Amino acid sequence: MFSHIPPYAGDPVLSLNEEFQTDTRPSKVNLSIGVYFDDTGKLPIMRAVNKAESTRQTSIAPHPYLPMAGHAQYREVAQKVVFGADLKDRLRDRLTTIQTLGGSGALKVGADFLKHYFPQSHVWASDPTWDNHKVLFEGAGFAVNHYPYYDPQSGGVRFTEMLETLDRLPAQSIVLLHACCHNPTGVDLSGDQWAELAPIFFRRNLIAFIDMAYQGFGSGIDEDAAGVRLLAEAGVPLLVASSFSKNFSLYGERCGALSVVCASAAEAERVLGQLNAKVRANYSNPPTYGATLISRVLSDEALTAEWTDELHGMRTRMLSMRSALHARLNGKVDDSLRARYINQRGMFTYTGLNKTQVDRLKNEFAIYLVNSGRMCVAGLSESNVDYVASSIAVVAAADTNNRA
Ligand code: LMR
Q1: Using CA atoms, how far apart are residues 292 and 278, in angstroms rounded to an integer?
Q2: Where is the Aminotransferase class I/classII large domain (predicted)?
Q3: 212 vs 234: CA distance, rounded Å
């Protein structure tokens, strides 16, 4: 019956991460998956989460289903983190949010919803984008196209070409944007650039779908959401897929949210109903545990402050690792490529290393980067940064020699 099923080619991130787990070489370094590790290479349990967990009922509690839209308090706190308390209050009932299975779950429910009500629309994603965007939106039945984004020459954004492309799109096209910490390049739009986008969405009658998986890992919770808030404030029809999986270090609990900014409360209520329908069709309703922990932290002032503080520490550690690698590569790789380690933001740096170099790093040095040359700087530590720098120097030198 199943003999015609072809083998799965694997996922560029998750399959590589699985390969890393089975690598027995003691010097191995995981710079592939977008997961934050501390300086000892461990996945942190955040202090605020630990405290929220310890106040949990110790006796076995009942395990009812959550509503399709998820945990009510979690939905509230998610809105506050994504939109900020002030804008959330001003948007009031025009804003609707459901709990989802991570940011990916939010993208999937949003994609199914959009496909149902905008069947003719195409999706436009940045070039390049997170590989799974294409898989996910194509899986929902969309054609996925790309607008110009990253400039490999300058290491910046091809903003003029991006605007020109968006300004030619058919009405109701869906434009997928990264709120912050662009995955895979680490190159974000500036505040001014976000402001220039808004009028195009109105002029061309476009739908914005913003993916915010790394809030807090760029410049801060509020700073990283500035683009989202700007478009929401401007009244652009907007979906936001957000995630607490990473900024709460609760990856396996799949803590995401999908928010939609509508034109009226009545519209938002109907949208919420149809999002519920898509949730029901996909997984019925979301799980309780992560949502309970997060709502407990974010509805307690002291725990929220502790969480924000720890997130700041994570951000600072990644910045110091960026600087450390930048310093150690001095004279070993081209200065313009080296500058990217400190100019790019968030978990990822687009190193400019090609597939051959990435393969050599894995095969000869047990250092894992994604094939595109994307490095997750959160996998660097005081104890491996010298090794990573000297290994990059070896593969970069071989490439220069080959070209010479
Ligand atoms: C990544 O890009 O590494 C993360 O978002 C994890 C994933 O699911 O791909």
Answers
A1: 23
A2: 27-392
A3: 18
**From 108, 134, 246, 278, active-site residue:** 246
CB 147 within 8 A of CB 126: yes
pLDDT of residue 143: 98
User: DSSP string of 302-338?
Assistant: HHHHHHHHHHHHHHHHHHHHHHHHHHHTTTTS-HHHH
Which residues make Cβ contacts (< 8 Å) with residue 379, sequence separation at least 6? 29, 30, 31, 32, 35, 37, 41
Structure tokens at 195: 């402001």
Helix (H, G, I), strand (E, B) or coil at 203: helix
Ligand 1 centre distance from Cα of residue 13 (Å): 6
Cα distance between residue 293 and residue 155, in whole Å: 39
pLDDT at 62: 83
Residue 238 Cα to ligand 1 middle (Å): 23
Residue 130 annotated to the active site: yes
Q: How many CB atoms lie within 10 A of CB 90?
A: 13
Q: Residue 269 in contact with residue 134, Cβ under 8 Å?
A: no
Residue 239's CB: how many other CB atoms inside 10 A? 24
Rounded Cα distance between 402 and 89, Å, is: 60
Dist CA 260 CA 268 (whole Å): 8
DSSP assigned state of 378: G
33 lines ligand 1 (CB under 6 A): yes
**pLDDT for position 404:** 46
Which residues of the chain have a pLDDT value below 50? 404
Cα-only R_g, the chain: 21
Q: For residue range 258-271, what is the model confidence (pLDDT) as tens digits?
A: 999 999 999 999 99
